[in-house]
Structure formats: structure tokens, C-alpha cells
Design brief:
alpha/beta; eight-stranded parallel β-sheet; 18 helices; 36% helix
Length: 509
């Protein structure tokens, strides 16, 4: 018994690392071995989306060496069949399995060891009637829906629709209620329409999808910081707040005990803004929000009509986890429900340590990705030129989803899952300005800001600056400035001489 318990402990010790990095069958070395995904029709489920689960590929039979098979010859057939099936890869790496079999001293210990591996594998599976299939609610609660119930207008004093100023002072940028950049507030679609609002800033303080890393305080951190959100942007000489009618639409209601309940309310509110003719800008909150944001745009413009550029250090194409949605799983669900086509999903800045099969799966279904390896090889100008062309190719509308961990942790330490080697602010600012001026952006989210993780406040400042850069681009587009790499002559050249003109082509680079 003591030997068996020791063997069980040895087998169980590998489980934590396997949970983080599953043992998988290797994909073909030549990516051309995968069939090329056919174009996806609007609203259609991509053909190869369920070909396999990235990180948890189809289990292949285990190729057992001859000397190991010789040691197994006295085991019952069911145990040998289990080992041959390859299911052991979910419990223990094959190299460790073979070593343990070779080193086991007696047939009884060998049988106990295989029993242990089989037991651990069995315990990992779902057992109907034993494991809960759903999370129960107390449907008798008199407050079941009060967290998202809208207050009827009849309960408030009558007022004419339109944005509401929150400061009692004439120049109330830093007084009154904390709103984004001191903007007036709007509470209803009627306010948006009456005020002819261009951009509505909406907080979504969802944090359960990332495991409570403090993303719930991101919206208020951006509002309270305020630095970086106002004035004139130097490269364009455009002041977004003077060109755009911007309001703060408050926070969406969230149930911090249920991501699934929360995202439906976020989807409703984002769609409400879009249907009113305004551009929703969602400040999060974790990256679970990308799913309801994209779904809401499909509600407004039609399935398959909106493209997405996803800035992130992570692919976020996970699935096969216990929960169907978290901050690493929004993309598969958005495509599986037909809201967006794989060929219209463009990822930028990827550098987290994913295995090859994640990238092979994205190639298989037709997604576009631009990793930091591509940036290192070709440079940001070439990569963004390619990404912008891809964003304009198939769709008329674009949603931008910006996870702040795409920035290097030196600039953005206040995020739940930082990854070294990311964008500098010097790179990110012109990228966002250019993208939001050259493409028809109908919405934007900035997520995963976790202010409690950064006592220096620079994470909130830089998040504000990214958002300000996009607002600058939207303002430029409204004014008709859509040419590539635009710079104001006033700010990019002091005009006292013709210095750059005398240096020839490319001298201003």
C-alpha cells in the first residue's frame, strides 16, 4: 500500500504543470499539410473551427518502445489497451511513464503504477450525477435581477434628453463627479441622440474572468487619473474633445460572481450605444469583454460585417476549459456564434509562450496574426501597413480590442498577466492614432488595466494615452484627415529653414 501511495503521489505531482501546458500531439511540421480554410460567409460557423482544440489536440495512440512492451506483457489487456490509447499523456509525459515502467521492480508494483495512472485520468473527467453540470441560482430571490434592472424615467424628475454637465463650475475639468476627461454624462439612448454624441465612454468593471486581479477598478482609475486625456495631440495638432462630442455613459452593471450573466448586460449596453449612432468605447475590466463587445457590433451592423484588430501579448483563443468564457477565451466563442469571420480577426503584438498548435489552428481556420517575431523581422511600419490593409479588406467596420498587456511591463506593470518584450509607448501611440484615422472604427475597448498592481499610476496614465491616441485618430477621420502617416506641418517642422527638403527623400525618417 505504501508503494502504491508513493506512486500515486509521483503521478499527481505532474498535474499542475500539465494544467498550464498540456501534453499534445505534434502538428505536421509543414503547415501546408493543413487544408486552406475556405472563405466564411457572414454568420456562418467557420469550417475547421472544431478540427481540434489548441493546446488540447486529439489524443494519438502511444508508440510504446519494445523493451517497455516486454515489461507490460503480464498486465491485463485492459491496462495495456489504456497505455496504448495515449490517454496517459493527460496525466504524465510519455518519457516519464516509460522510465517509471522500466524502473519498477516487481509485477505487482507495475500493476499498481498503471492503476494509479488510470485512476488519476478517470478522476480528471466529468462524472454525470456526481459533478455539478451547472451553477445553481436561487431563483426565489426577490433581488434576482435588481443588479441590472433599469430605473424607469418616471422615477426621476422630468428633464429634456441630452448630455448632463456634472460640474458646478465654468471650467470644471478637475471638479465635480469624475468622468472621462471631465466629459458630461449621458444615461439613455435618447441623451446620445439629442446630444448628437460621437463617442460614448462606457465602463465595464468585470473581473471574474481573470481571477480577480483588480481589473474591476480599471474604469474608475482611467476616469480619476484624467492626465493624458485632454488637450491637443502634438503629431496631428488635433484636440479630440474640440472635434468630437464625447460623453461618459457610466458603467455597465456586472455580477462579479458570474461572467456569463455580466457579459449579456455589457452586450446590451454596447449595442444600445451603437444603435443610437455613437461609437462605444469600453474601458474594462478583463478581456472576457471582447466577446460581448464584438457580439454587440454584430447585433448593430450584422454578423460577419465587422472586423477586429486585437492588440495583445496573448492569443486568447483558448477553449476546452471548465468555464466557457474567461479572459483567455473570448475569440473562439465570438467566431463559433458567427459574429465575426476568422479572416476578419487580426491579432497584433503576440508574444506569450504558446505551443505551435495554437498558431497552426489559427492558420487552419483563416485568422491573421502578427507576432513580435514578425515585428522583429520586418519592423512596425511594415507590419502595421499589412494589418491595416487586412482590416480594410473584407469589412466596412472595425472594432479595436486593446489589452494593455500588449505594452511592455516597463510601461504597463499594472496588468494581471504581463509579458516582457512588448510595445513601447513610443510605438503604440502612432500605431493607434494611425489605425483610428485610416480605418472606419465603430468601437474600441481597452482592457486588463489593474491599478492596484501599480502604485506609480503610470499604467493608468498610459492606458489613457492609448485611448486618447485613438480618439485623436477618430477626430482626424471626422475632419477628413485619413492619409497614411499624417503629420501636421506646424508640429513636425519649425519652418525656419528647408532643412529636410535639402536632405533628399527619406531625410525626415
Amino acid at each position: 500500500m505504501r508503494t502504491r501511495l508513493a506512486l500515486m503521489a509521483a503521478a499527481a505531482l505532474v498535474l499542475p504543470s500539465l494544467a498550464a501546458s498540456p501534453v499534445i500531439a505534434a502538428p505536421p511540421a509543414d503547415s501546408s499539410a493543413f487544408p486552406k480554410a475556405p472563405p466564411t460567409k457572414p454568420g456562418e460557423i467557420p469550417k475547421y473551427i472544431d478540427a481540434y482544440t489548441p493546446g488540447m489536440m486529439k489524443i494519438d495512440p502511444l508508440d510504446i518502445p519494445a523493451d517497455v512492451m516486454a515489461r507490460l506483457k503480464d498486465l491485463p489487456a485492459d491496462k495495456i489497451d489504456f497505455l496504448k490509447s495515449g490517454k496517459t499523456s493527460s496525466v504524465i509525459p510519455s518519457s516519464q511513464l516509460f522510465r517509471q515502467i522500466r524502473e519498477t521492480s516487481s509485477p505487482r508494483e507495475l500493476a499498481d503504477y498503471v492503476d494509479t495512472v488510470m485512476t488519476v485520468y478517470g478522476q480528471m473527467q466529468f462524472h454525470k450525477g456526481v459533478d455539478p453540470e451547472t451553477i445553481p441560482f436561487d431563483t426565489t430571490s426577490p433581488r434576482f435581477n435588481d443588479w441590472r434592472l433599469r430605473r424607469p424615467a418616471e422615477l426621476d424628475p422630468h428633464r429634456e434628453p441630452g448630455p448632463i454637465q456634472t460640474s458646478r463650475y465654468m471650467h470644471g475639468y478637475s471638479t465635480g463627479l469624475p468622468t472621462f476627461a471631465g466629459s458630461p454624462i449621458a444615461l439613455t439612448p435618447e441623451d446620445l441622440k439629442a446630444g448628437k454624441v460621437d463617442v460614448a465612454i462606457m465602463g465595464a468593471p468585470l473581473d471574474m474572468g481573470s481571477g480577480w486581479r483588480d481589473a474591476q477598478h480599471g474604469p474608475n482609475a482611467i476616469r480619476v487619473m484624467r492626465d493624458g486625456t485632454g488637450g491637443t495631440e502634438v503629431s496631428s495638432m488635433i484636440a479630440p474633445s474640440e472635434v468630437l462630442n464625447i460623453v461618459d455613459y457610466g458603467n455597465a452593471a456586472v455580477d462579479q460572481n458570474s461572467t456569463e450573466r455580466s457579459v449579456q448586460e455589457v452586450r446590451r449596453l454596447v449595442g444600445e450605444i451603437g444603435k443610437a449612432g455613437s461609437i462605444p468605447v469600453v474601458i474594462g475590466g478583463d478581456h472576457s469583454l471582447e466577446y460581448p463587445d464584438v457580439a454587440a457590433m454584430a447585433d448593430v451592423y450584422g454578423k460577419g460585417q465587422v472586423g477586429v484588430i486585437h492588440f495583445d501579448s496573448h492569443l486568447d483563443t483558448g477553449r476546452g476549459r471548465i468555464h466557457l468564457l474567461d479572459h483567455g477565451q473570448p475569440i473562439y466563442r465570438a467566431m463559433k456564434e458567427g459574429h465575426i469571420r476568422p479572416e476578419d480577426y487580426i491579432q497584433v503584438g503576440i508574444r506569450a509562450h504558446y505551443s505551435k498548435d495554437y498558431y497552426e489552428w489559427e492558420r487552419l481556420i483563416g485568422m491573421r496574426y502578427h507576432t513580435m517575431a514578425e515585428v522583429e523581422k520586418h519592423g512596425w511600419d511594415a507590419v502595421m501597413e499589412r494589418a491595416i490593409q487586412e482590416a480594410k479588406k473584407n469589412t466596412k467596420y472595425l472594432w479595436i480590442s486593446f489589452d494593455v498587456d500588449v505594452l511592455d511591463p516597463a510601461f504597463e506593470p499594472g496588468t494581471g498577466t504581463p509579458v516582457a518584450g512588448g510595445l513601447t509607448m513610443r510605438e503604440a501611440i502612432p500605431i493607434m492614432r494611425r489605425l483610428c484615422s485610416e480605418a472606419n472604427v465603430v468601437g474600441f475597448d481597452i482592457v486588463e488595466l489593474a491599478p492596484a498592481l501599480d502604485p506609480t499610476y503610470r499604467s493608468a496614465l498610459n492606458a489613457n494615452t492609448i485611448l486618447f491616441s485613438c480618439l485623436t485618430g477618430i477626430a482626424m477621420r471626422k475632419k477628413g484627415i485619413t492619409q497614411a502617416n499624417y503629420f501636421s506641418p506646424l508640429s513636425s517642422e519649425h519652418g525656419q529653414d528647408k532643412y529636410y527638403a535639402t536632405k533628399g527623400k527619406g531625410a525626415n525618417r
